[in-house]
Amino acid sequence: MAAGTACVYTSCSSIKCVQEGCGRTWQQLNVATIPSLPRSAFCGKKLASSLKAQAWLPVAPLKRRNDSKHALKVSSVLMEPRPLENTIVNVGTGEEKRVDPRTVLSIILGGGAGTRLYPLTKRRAKPAVPIGGGYRLIDVPMSNCINSGINKVFILTQFNSTSLNRHLARTYNFGKINFGDGFVEVLAATQTPGDRGADWFQGTADAVRQYLWLFEDAKNKVVEDVVILSGDHLYRMDYMDFVQKHRDSGADITISCVPMDDSRASDYGLMKIDGEGRVMSFSEKPKGDDLKKMQVDTTILGLSPEEAAEKPYIASMGIYVFKKDVLMKLLRWRYPTANDFGSEIIPASAKEFNVQAYLFNSYWEDIGTIKSFFDANLALTAQPPQFSFYDAAKPIFTSPRYLPPTSIEQCMVPILFHVHE
């Protein structure tokens, strides 16, 4: 391709960002004791809107002018993109390998029939249930993906999906959000040829299995890891930190987990881990004596002795990272009849694969029942709230049919009454 040149004036003389687009590729220039541009900065001007993921690289040594009133002139040239690879980031005196978001694909599970949320799910799927005024539950994992730089997203749907499909089309397609070379695609349950082709999705694992052929598509060949997400949780997470832990530990599967108390432990998959964070055993929604057997000393997660006494269980959030090759092997060949991740795939895999736990130490709520839905909405009114939709750095996106509620903080609202005689 033809190369072009451009000039830009800046008051700084050290440039780290060398690749436009995902913003995850960096290079430390050998310019000592000179401050650098912020991580989101770039140098140069894009020649055409069709050029994607190209880099502006300085072609001449950077020199500081003695006269501080004059800006520094920087020349740069458009280069071909480098192959996808784990990029080196200089952190202090050490180096850390960072995961390229283009090698990560996410799958959001559209949820089952949602009987515990009835009548809210009478006409819509769980992820389409409104939360916090003008938002939908599906906006949470979608926004987390966008804020994490993951732009390859599949949403699996089956029950009452009309409202969910409409919201996804209005919010995340038709140019409202630019995903570059990524995509947002809805994968609906469908009947196909073959022995089991007449079956609809039989569970979370079976839903992913029926669309494994998409992983072999040419546009997904660069994908190395698959993030499995639920569409009915309320939380804010950087998934790239999650994937980074997965890569650094050499895990085949990584499970995001939270400490849990006695009152709700039986509603989740529980695990036991060793000192290295490896999952040694996993039990899905145990009851009675089986529940008691899953108690552990959660100080291993960094909790204080008092907190560990209150929360003696390690609960799965139902959020996983799989190596793509491992996921395909498990679903196609190792456990071809297993239908669910939590009750079948994960417990069996913990015995023969490297399954790691990732502690998520922040607000998280599973909106699976009317009570949890009610409590989560009321919790949004706390001062300060544990979770807020109003975060400029990591916003929650949506396309409401009406304006979200007004947020009034640290003020008094007088109520006046006028009595007519």
From TrEMBL:
Domain Nucleotidyl transferase residue range list: 106-381
Keywords, comma-separated and alphabetical: Allosteric enzyme, ATP-binding, Nucleotide-binding, Nucleotidyltransferase, Starch biosynthesis, Transferase
GO terms for biological process, alphabetical: glycogen biosynthetic process; starch biosynthetic process
EC number: 2.7.7.27
Transmembrane helix found in the keyword field: no
Top-level class of the enzyme under EC nomenclature: transferase
InterPro entries: ADP-Glc_PPase, ADP_Glu_pyroP_CS, NTP_transferase_dom, Nucleotide-diphossugar_trans
Gene3D superfamilies: Spore Coat Polysaccharide Biosynthesis Protein SpsA, Chain A (3.90.550.10)
Reactions the enzyme catalyzes: alpha-D-glucose 1-phosphate + ATP + H(+) = ADP-alpha-D-glucose + diphosphate
GO MF annotations, alphabetized: ATP binding; glucose-1-phosphate adenylyltransferase activity
Pathway entry: Glycan biosynthesis; starch biosynthesis
Family in the record: Belongs to the bacterial/plant glucose-1-phosphate adenylyltransferase family.
Protein name in UniProt: glucose-1-phosphate adenylyltransferase
Native species: Physcomitrium patens
Lineage summary: Eukaryota, Viridiplantae, Streptophyta, Embryophyta, Bryophyta
Primary gene name: LOC112284220
